Amino acid sequence: MAKLVIREGDYTHEHPLDEVETLIGRSQKCVVRLTEAAASRNHCTILKTPEGWLLMDLQSSNGTILNGVRITESPLKTGDVIRIGNAELAFKGDGDESKHVMDVREKFRELSDGKQVVRYEVVTSDDGTEELKAEWSDRAAKLKKQPKDPHEPETRDPVHPDDTNAG
Q: Mean pLDDT across the stretch 90-108?
């Protein structure tokens, strides 16, 4: 059975993932209740799907970090570490997934170029090679450009007092 190993400060405990959905946050209705101040009331959820386990951020204020990368939705593999503020939740999967465990943090940082990972998965081909597929959101495209002042010239040369023609 899959489980989470949860560490908040000096307190560590395990929580079995024995339901289709496991809600995580500070709310009374959460299956996994955190005391972490950075956690939203309904912070994230873990779903059991036919394809495996899926972690979904529930539009939390401070985000859900998976293996060092902020995500909105991502499949889970044994060894993945979820961070919510200072709380750390280590995922242990159903079976032997050790060959699929990989540390993707460095690769994502290398590839990100100002983008945020929305989702990733490891795909194994027929010949046994593994390929990392990621979906990115372009943070730069979401930033609004400040409109230019129509009265301001395109370029400005510095003006020195000696260069002015008073006349």
A: 59
